[in-house]
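User: I want to check something. If I give you two sequences, will you return the structure for each one separately, not as a complex?

Assistant: Yes, each is folded on its own. Here is the first sequence with its structure:
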Amino acid sequence: MSDGSTAPVASAAVGITGLTSLVSNPLEVHDILARELRTNRTAVAGDALTAHLGALRGRAGAVLSVGTGAVAFGYDGVSRWRRADGWGHLLGDLGAGVWVGGEALRAAGRYHDGATRGASKVLLEAAVAKFGLIESWPNQFYKNEQRAKQLASMAPEVIIAAAQGDETSINILEQAGRHLADTLSSALGNGIPPLASTTGRLVQEESPLTVALTKQLSEDRPEVSLVPSAGSPLDGALHLARRLRDAPQSVAGFRPWLTVRVDGHHTLRETPADLGASDTLAAKLSATELPGDELQ
């Protein structure tokens, strides 16, 4: 904890994994940053949003983050943010690791049951080696609070099987690519320049998912330029902190994925989170302290 001897810093920004699900009140994070770093300019963001700022070096465009889940953020470079997917494995995360893994287990189950369409012996064998007999799977997954990560652990097996020519695995990855292209395209709404990038272990350069995504995006949105990621989420947090230091009035919040506090007050300009990925200009908010429950 700070003893008051630490030199104050001009600004601080953090990107947090699970911000909307694990952090009950981002205001408390602002308080900690302000107290421990002795700064009056703080930003608290989700790691997917700082991934955007890192991947495009703060430029306008959209970035798709793919791991266990999938979410895309679009930014017009001034005041408008858009978000697509990131709804979790029960409602969304289409094309992400959890979705690919779930499709793999469904294909394995179909082969076990004797189905021919959408079935895979290779995936059944891989899943049994990883999780044990299929009869134990319902109990394993339905009672496991970490089932999303458990499901996503099958995604590499699908990639391996596809490389070996398993038709069902190839189809799963192609469909995943279509889903991811849809998510990225959704984030590239009106007002967002046609510049995009991807980040995450499943969409590294030349990965099967990247190939499928690129193919589908080029068909759906040929005007979009898909570029390699130029930086990490940490680079994005540094970019956000520098902007907050140099031009705090230019940083628009996007609750709950980005909240900004300057001199004890929240940013003047904010994109309302309840409008999600709709085409809206950032609201002009008065610079007054928000009640604590506003950000919960």
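And separately, the second sequence with its own structure:
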Amino acid sequence: MRYLVLGAGALGGYFGGMLVKGGADVTFLVRPKRAEQLGKDGLIVKLQDGGELRTKVRTVQQDQLDGTYDVILLCCKAYDLDGAMDALAPAISDRSVILPVLNGVRHIDVLTARFGQARVLGGLTTINTALMPDGTIQQSQIRINLNAIGELDGRSSDRCAAIKAALEAGGIPVQISDTIVAMMWAKFFGFVISATVATLTRSRAGAIAASASGPSFVSNVIEECTRAVTAAGYPPAPPPAPDTAGMMRGMFSQPGST
């Protein structure tokens, strides 16, 4: 399978680099400055276990796409999605599939509206990486490394199995989910709680927990977010699923937390 990774930033560079490590045929669709940097230094990924991946990679720019690809890995920011779709459109054939790894859920509707549901998978990751000023990619020490992919309609497919095998050959464990959209909503639920609290208070978790009104404010945010995801058709799952609301309450109830 031919893989096209849109961008070689924090996530795209990490996933693409690990695919290369596993022996996959990978091309990075990048801007001129990043192409020059990768051509000079190669792709460098510093892993959380202290190891380092250094590899030469194949790059292409938007006006140089050389045919179509089997899998397009989309790791852009949500605000870049429209431009990203324009850039990758020439690389898509009837057999291509797009695997987006973005925060949120809206991008699924946007991608399927343009390319059709048959060409879009669901995907999520909790891997945390950063693109450093020198162009290297640094994986953080946060060890909640959940990665999942799946067909939007929940069926099993050979293409999901092939992508899972390619990622795991490079060292990224992946689960194939028959409820990938619900999993994406569950991640989004926790993300929205923490983002709402942080944005409205502009404070760290410990300061919020230590304030007189902090815990009740957090509870109100959790309740509002719960109502929103429930109205969308994806209420928080009961045990034994992870208790996202409970984890959020715990995080914002420890005065010493950062």
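Because they were folded independently, the notes below concern the second chain alone. The CA atoms of residues 92 and 139 lie 30 Å apart. The chain is about 40% helix and 20% strand.
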